[in-house]
Amino acid sequence: MGKDDTRRLIPRTDRLLAHPELQGLRGRLGETVIRSIIQEIQDQARSGELAPEDVEPEILAAVASREATSLRPVLNATGVIVHTNLGRAPLSKSAREALLTAAGYVDVEMDLPSGMRSRRGAGVRQALLRACPSAEDALAVNNGAAALLLATSVLAGTREVVISRGELVEIGAGFRLPELIESAGARLREVGATNRTHVGDYKSAMGEQTGCLLKVHPSNFQITGFTSGVSVSELRSLADEHHVPLVVDLGSGLLSPDPVLPVEPDVASALTAGADVVIVSGDKLLGGPQSGILLGRAEIIARMARHPLARALRMDKLALAALEATVSGEVTPVTAALHADPGRLRERTEALAEAVACVVVEHDGRVGGGGAPGVLLPGWAVRLPESAARSLRTGSPAVLPRVHRGACLVDLRCIPEDDDERLAAAVRAALAQAGEALGTGGS
Ligand SMILES: *Cc1c(COP(=O)(O)O)cnc(C)c1O
């Protein structure tokens, strides 16, 4: 059959579009997307990759399997709780429900009894103040970086932000906090040395040009050995002497101390020690949606809320709803993974190992997301051949294992227990695929 004959046999776009099954799927995918899928598959037939009679079934299958979002759910088998590449914190059940509630029209800026406009984020504010009574007021913005930008812009303007050289942090993917602060016009006044900064270093840097004092928790690295820093309470005395505000960026965001993370600073302690404003991320240890939270003195929070930047950095209603539900709701998946019962974790790991005929090895979990860098969370993993990793990642459900020293490690710390069976099935499928690729599968 000649090329022209083949072309004539390829079903036409209008006929395909009218197919009853495609009509049924049209609510989920728009016509533009469906047309592009049709065109792509027709092109495959025109180039001879596909037989004309396979065009219609191929299109129906492609449209039926295409999800509205290209984001795919992943089972996190790395043991890293706040995994930045997997969207940091997985939301609690109540936060997921809150997202759906907020998806339609909601009273995000409306007082329904009076019919008057109300302050955006009132629910989140109340939830944060209940969870952190030592704060006079609270404001949530788009993320931690936005909170820091807002705080330093409002408090320093184009004046100086005084900060220790040991706290000039790069938070990831090339983004550096000092550059972020300077991008809004404030000037950095670095004091001390990388490993040691003393009160006197801050003192001699302060004067007319000082806008605020900033202390940043070096959340994603550790400097050990000959080190010293200046505590929040010491900085408080200095701030009082010079009548300048003190901002403390804690990064990961424990609202109150957690015994599993004894050296991780928390908001309540920083406020008690004298910070005027404390900044934390909402999607690290707090376990909520992407957000940045400012807690502290009422007068300063009010100035931030009024600043034009606050409008550019404001949270959307979906994240507001999820954050409120996170702060006032049940134990989050992040907290659950952090406090996973070792006995239960071991039992589940052994059950998986048995189901897939592989061995259990000791494996430490991590907080991740640039939090608690030195903290190991002892646990276990099922060890698979390294070749299983790719099949796991591309399987259904997608599973992200840890590849380490020639092995593929499956850690159950961050897997919800309900998913254990799906995980076992995914591992079995990946092992079968890896075995076939090596030529050891089947006979
Ligand atoms: C993570 C982090 C930030 C940035 O917060 P995002 O929510 O990622 O924008 C800022 N400061 C510190 C110390 C951090 O750890």
Automatic annotation (TrEMBL):
What's in the GO CC field?
A: cytoplasm
- The UniProt record lists the EC number as 2.9.1.1
Q: N6-(pyridoxal phosphate)lysine (modified residue): where?
A: K284
Pathways involved: Aminoacyl-tRNA biosynthesis; selenocysteinyl-tRNA(Sec) biosynthesis; selenocysteinyl-tRNA(Sec) from L-seryl-tRNA(Sec) (bacterial route): step 1/1
Q: Where are the transmembrane segments?
A: none
| Signal peptide annotation | none
Q: Name one GO molecular function term.
A: L-seryl-tRNA(Sec) selenium transferase activity
User: Where does it localize?
Assistant: Cytoplasm
Alphabetically ordered keywords of this record: Cytoplasm, Protein biosynthesis, Pyridoxal phosphate, Selenium, Transferase
Protein family according to the UniProt entry: Belongs to the SelA family.
Q: What does the UniProt record say this protein does? A: Converts seryl-tRNA(Sec) to selenocysteinyl-tRNA(Sec) required for selenoprotein biosynthesis.
Annotated protein name in UniProt: L-seryl-tRNA(Sec) selenium transferase
Organism the protein comes from: Arthrobacter crystallopoietes BAB-32
